[in-house]
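A quick aside before the break. I want you to see a complete sequence-to-structure record at least once, exactly as it would be stored in a machine-readable document. Don't worry about memorizing anything.
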Amino acid sequence: QVQLVESGGGLVQTGGSLRLSCAASGRTFSRYAMGWFRQAPGKEREFVAAINWNGDNTYYADSVKGRFTISRDNAKNTAYLQMDSLKLEDTAVYYCATGSRPLRPPAIESAGYAYWGQGTQVTVSS
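That is the input. The structure line, written in tokens, reads:
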């Protein structure tokens, strides 16, 4: 059974930084792409970033490009989202996700992911 557990969310001021972690278990982590999504109150869940199985390729939403960095440590079965220069509009619940097909490029749509974490709240205040 695949499990994803996010951590690292919290309250931060505009311009600050947070690093989210996503610990995976239940299968060979290193064979699957990982993605981060977020959902703000009253809004649809949206793509934030994704990384392929070995970390060679990364993808970002335009709204976070240059401020967020996705990475992974396959030895630790963990994916990360480093968030810098945070803005008020980054406030959301952040979810990590992983696919069901190994060695595939990461998707940028939520439908491309089969397994999801429970989410971690990120609140950016002025």
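Two observations worth writing down. The longest strand covers residues 18-25. The two ends are 40 Å apart (CA to CA). We'll return to this after the break.
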